[in-house]
Known about the structure:
Number of strands: 20
Number of domains: 3
Amino acid sequence: MAIIRHIKVENFRGIRSLDWHVNGRITCLVGPGDSCKITILDAIEYALFPRWNVAFADTDFYQGSTTTTAGPIVIELTIGELPDELVDENKYGLFSRGYDPAGGIQDDPDDACEQVLTYRFQVDQDLQPQWTLVKTSNPDPKVVSYRDRENLGVARLGDDVERHLTWGRGSALTRLTEKESATGAVAIAHRAARAAISSTPLNELQQVAARVQQTVSEFGVSVVALRPGLDLEGTTFGQAAISLHDGNIPLRATGLGTRRLATLAVQQTGLGAKSLVLIDEVEHGLEPHRIRHLLKKICDDHRLSISRPMPEGQVIMTTHSPTPIMALDIAEVRFVHCYEGNITVLRADPASTESLQAIARTVPHAFLARRLLVCEGKTEEALCRVLDEVWSKNHRDLPMAYCGVAAIFGGGSKAPSVALELRRLNYGVLYCGDSDTSLNPDEPTLCSHGVEVVLWPGNVATEERVALDLPFGSLQCLVDTAIQIFGEQEVLNAISSVTDADIKLWGVFLTDWQSNGMPEEAIRTAIGTAAKKTLGGGWFKNITAGMQLGQVVADAIPQVPTSPLATTLKRIEDWVHGT
C-alpha cells in the first residue's frame, strides 16, 4: 500500500532535526537509550495514521519551546508505492513528485524516478495539527483527509495492544468488521444486564437508596423511588466490551507477549503484507525463540526471494535487545544516535557488512552501547574483560557496561577498518592492538576520523609486551598457565624452537634456565615470541586462554605500575571510565 522513502522531522520531542533516507523494506533501529528511536515511530504515526484529532501539548515541542523562533513541529514523509487512486490527477496527482535513491526528492522528476507524495504534519504554537501534501513548486499545500491516510495501510504495535483485541472505536477488529456491527449486540447486552440487576435482591443497597431519597427530598429534589440499578453509561460497557476470547478467557487477559502477537496478527489480517508496520521494541514480552519466529514471519513477507520477486510493504521496528540484532541481516539494521537533538540514522557500509555481521552474531549487545573498545585479537578482548573487574574497583565498582562501553573482537587485520566504520556510525571508538605490524588504515587516518588508538610500545605483540614487563615470578605463572593448556613437553618444545638454548633439558622453572646461563632478557624474549606464534598460532588466541592470561596480568600489574604494559592499560582504563 505504501513505503516510506524519506523522513524529515523538526522540533518534535527529543528531535531537533532528522533527515533520513529510509532505503529498505525491513529496518531495525538500534542505538543507546535516549537516541529517539521510538520518537521516530511516533512521528511516522502522527503523520500517517487515520486520526482526525490529536491532542498536543507544549512538551511535544523540542525542549518544550513553542516560541516563534523555535518554529513549529514539522514531520514530512515522502511515500512511494502509492495506491493508484491517490495519485490520480483528480485526487492528489498534481502534488506528485519523484524520488531517486541517488538524487533524492525531485519536484519535476524524469521518467527514471519513482512517483511519490510528500505528506506534511505540522503543529504550530496554537497546538492545532494539520495534515497536508506539499510540493515545492506549489505554494498552496493540499489538506489530506483521515480516510485517505487510512488508505496507506499503517499498523502500529505499541503500548495500546489491548484495544485492538476488542471491537471498540478505531480498533483493528472494527476495521475488519464490514457488515455486522457490534452496536446491536451491545444494546441487547445492556437490556439483559439491566434486567439481571433489577431481579437481584440488593437489600443493603436498597436501604442506602431509601435514606438518600429522604435526604434528597429535604433538599427540594422531587424523586419518585430511588433504587440501585445498573448505569451502563457510568461504565465502559460499549462496543469495546466485546473482545476476542480464547474459549472463556479474553485475549486481553493473556500474557503481554501473546497480546502483542495477537494484535499484530489482527492488524496484518486487515492490511496484509503490503502494510507499513511500525513496532515498538519488537522483543517486548517475548522469549528469544518467539522473537525469532516473529521476525521471520514479518520479515519474510517483505524480503526479496524466489517466491517473492516483487516484495511489498515495509517494517520499521526498534529494539533494546541483542536477539533481534543477532537474528537480522546487518544490512537491515540502522544505527541511531542523537547529539544535541540532531538525529543521525546510518546503515553499515556494504564493504564492512561481513565484519559487522560477525559482531552481530557473537556480541550483538555491542551495538546497544555508546562506545566500543575494538580489540585487534581475542587475546586483547579477553585481557580487557578480565581487567574490567580490576578497573571497576577503582571507579566505585562501576563496570565497563555501566559506562556504556563494550569490548569486541575486531577481526585481526580487519580490526582497524572495523574501528573506522564503527566511528562513522557515530560510536565512540578506541582501537587496541599490536604494534608489530602496520595498520590498514594507518594510525594517523584512524585518529583523524576520531578513533582513539592505543598500541603497545616497542613494536611488539600483546604476548611479547606482557612477557617483557611482568615481574619475573609472574612470568613463571604465565609459563605454568600455558603448560596447563598445552602440556609441559609442548610448551618447552615451543620455547626451544625460537631460541638457541635447549630449554627441554632444563625443565619448567625459569630459575633453572638462569642457572644454565640464559639471561633474563633472553628468557623474556623467548617466552614472548613462543607465546605469540607457536602451538597453533599463539598460546592465548581464544577467549578462554586469553582470560587466563588476563588473570596473570591483573595479579601482576600492581607490582610494575610504571611499566609500558601498565601505563598502556591505564590509558584504556581512563578511556573506558571517561577520566
